[in-house]
Amino acid sequence: MTILFAGLAAVLVVSSLMVILHKNPVTSALFLVLAFCSLAGIYLTLQAEFIGMVQVIVYAGAIMVLFLFVIMYLNLGRDVETGIQIAVRRGLGWIVGAVLLAEGAVMFGRRWGLGPVTPGPSRPPVGNTQALGQILYSRYLFPFEVTSMVLLVAMVGAIVITRGQERARRESMGTRAGARGPGGRPPRTHAEEAVAEPGLAPAAAGEPEEQASVAGSARP
Amino acid sequence: MREYLPVLVFAAVAVLFAVSTIGVSTIIVPRRSSARKMAPYECGVEPVGDARQRFEIKFYLVAVLFILFDIEAVFLYPWAVAFRQLGLYGLVEMGLFILVLVVGYLYLLFKRAFDWN
């Protein structure tokens, strides 16, 4: 069991390090999938089967899809950030890292929030998922029902944001019809254009030579 | 924990298989690259532009809605497992949960979120 935990923890630490150290955001995102999967394995060793499976289904499966979408929407394939952005981000990173480190020190120092140290997780009389179901749908009924409202709000929000942008695009279509580039590309939404316009110049300027040589023959 | 031994063996075999096939092929495959070999290949067609193109926001909308209904489905698992212990009480509260989300589903239907065009 200890060997299993050590192996999973090693994979988790290494893949987490790769997430923050790798230059390519897409590769980082895929390493994050590996981190989630090894974390699910650690949950399994703690006999928390349901949480482990949810970790794989929701985080590694669904959330990471959104991460990859965002990476592609923002066109983060290559670094387009200028010096000041990196400096701000690095500063924030140091602050957040220091807070996390302090939190970890408090946790280790005082065993804050850990409760009395038990000799080990004792096997519950019923399965972990069943125990979770019994407590979630009786004692924590209200938070559970509130969750449905949260999901509803998220649905409405997603529609309002995307559809609102579409309407704005349709309204501005008449004034900007001539401004669009040559055909062949599907029309972009307003949100995409808002993202694209500031990023276009650095992306084009930072295009490496191998890109230019490949595209040069094909692009008119 | 013993019941997860087959899963562990399966995972170990899967990792071993992936590592060994890639590892063996990197060791024994001869590498003679030429400019023609390194050229990007797109079904025999000259590549046009970059693969990292921006695509339409409606794909993202589908992904977001998938996550929301995915989370709804996740809540059904422990409920189904503990169904006998919860009884009618559990059925009613899950009915309320589903009802709220059906309202959301109807909203999406009326907003034509599932229409592709």
Automatic annotation (TrEMBL), chain B:
It catalyses: a quinone + NADH + 5 H(+)(in) = a quinol + NAD(+) + 4 H(+)(out). Its EC number is 7.1.1.-. InterPro entries: NAD(P)H_OxRDtase_bac/plastid, NADH_UbQ/plastoQ_OxRdtase_su3, NDAH_ubi_oxred_su3_sf. It is found in: Cell membrane; Membrane. It is a multi-pass membrane protein. GO terms for molecular function: NADH dehydrogenase (quinone) (non-electrogenic) activity; NADH dehydrogenase (ubiquinone) activity; quinone binding. It holds the Pfam family Oxidored_q4. The chain crosses the membrane at residues 6-29, 59-80, 86-110. Keywords: Cell membrane, Membrane, NAD, Quinone, Translocase, Transmembrane, Transmembrane helix, Transport, Ubiquinone. The keyword Glycosyltransferase does not apply. GO terms for cellular component: NADH dehydrogenase complex; plasma membrane. Coiled coil: none annotated. NDH-1 is composed of 14 different subunits. Subunits NuoA, H, J, K, L, M, N constitute the membrane sector of the complex. NDH-1 shuttles electrons from NADH, via FMN and iron-sulfur (Fe-S) centers, to quinones in the respiratory chain. The immediate electron acceptor for the enzyme in this species is believed to be ubiquinone. Couples the redox reaction to proton translocation (for every two electrons transferred, four hydrogen ions are translocated across the cytoplasmic membrane), and thus conserves the redox energy in a proton gradient. Belongs to the complex I subunit 3 family. This is NADH-quinone oxidoreductase subunit A. It comes from Eiseniibacteriota bacterium.
